[in-house]
Write a structure and sequence with these properties.
Strand order of the largest sheet: 2-1-3-4-7
Largest sheet: 5 strands, mixed
Strand content: 15-25%
Number of domains: 2
Radius of gyration: 21 Å
Structural class: alpha/beta
Shape: globular
């Protein structure tokens, strides 16, 4: 079985989940921040089971397909420009970018080969826009291939005890050893469902909007400034550090939006003189600027 995820971090988590062994993990070095946890807390944290199978049978399909031009190939110049837009501040060199898109191509080819060979496919989808876009893209990619596809849809809430419930916005928030607990949500994707989703992705490609978002449960083309109200509504009255502000937004709004997108839009507001850079407190950090709301005379 091929497991399909929609980010590198989710892929890595699933690779670990496929062969998860809590005894081996507990037998290794365990790092922590702040107060040292008790042995019981550590055991509870790493307690889990394997999803099963081979860790090589995991692919990451798509790169932030909710953002930018989707009219061309998944590894084409359009998507490479999106890479620059979102990650340019991280000083990726050409070699690293080339390797990133080579990995994209390899995973797409692995998925296509598996589908054509009759290997079962299991898609781990969430309502985060990048994940839903990835799911739609895969349905379009496999549209004409007769293959068995199952989908595990991430529930918004997962009761882990009688009095405790965990809230999720994307698969990256689920610990590797706990992924097996969500397997009961697995359902088969029918050929009709695959075709409907594929058609919708085709229309989104034709629209080719700057951004795609989930509105009333539906993946929809939206303008680039769609999420800007979240930024402007939460801007502090005093000076603030960009990194801390973005962290607050990510914690407050479970929308599946990346920190890179928030940073991109904040930079846009700086260019438009809506925000002022007071100083760059940490040149080594891409979000190290100290910012202030601009005051415009009426």
């Amino acid at each position: 079985m091929i497991e399909v995820l929609f980010s590198d971090s989710e892929k890595g988590s699933m690779q670990l989940a496929k062969v998860y062994d809590e005894k081996k993990i507990l037998g290794g070095a365990v790092g922590y921040i702040g107060k040292k946890p008790t042995s019981d807390d550590i055991m509870k944290h790493f307690k889990g089971k394997a999803v099963g199978g081979n860790s090589k049978d995991v692919v990451n399909i798509g790169f932030s397909l909710d953002v930018g031009d989707i009219s061309g190939a998944i590894d084409g110049i359009e998507r490479q420009n999106v890479f620059h837009k979102l990650w340019g501040r991280y000083d990726f060199d050409n070699k690293e970018q080339k390797q990133f898109f080579q990995n994209q191509r390899k995973d797409v080819q692995k998925l296509l080969s598996a589908a054509k060979d009759g290997v079962s496919i299991r898609i781990w989808k969430s309502n985060a826009p990048y994940s839903t876009c990835g799911f739609y893209f895969v349905c379009n990619l496999l549209r004409s291939i007769d293959c068995n596809i199952n989908v595990v849809s991430l529930p918004k809430y997962n009761p882990i005890s009688e009095n405790k419930t965990v809230e999720y916005s994307h698969w990256g928030e689920v610990e590797s050893g706990k992924l097996y607990q969500l397997l009961p949500f697995e359902k088969q994707l029918t050929q009709i469902e695959k075709r409907i989703v594929s058609d919708h992705w085709y229309y989104l490609m034709v629209e080719n909007a700057p951004l795609r978002a989930i509105i009333n449960g539906k993946l929809t083309s939206v303008p680039e400034n769609f999420y800007d109200f979240i930024i402007t509504k939460n801007l502090p009255d005093n000076d603030f550090i960009m990194a801390r502000f973005i962290g607050t937004l990510l914690g407050e709004y479970s929308l599946g939006i990346s920190d890179s997108w928030y940073a991109f839009r904040i930079d846009k507001m700086i260019d438009e003189n809506k925000l002022i850079v007071i100083e760059n407190k940490d040149h080594s950090h891409p979000y190290g600027k100290v910012l202030r709301k601009a005051v415009h005379n009426v």
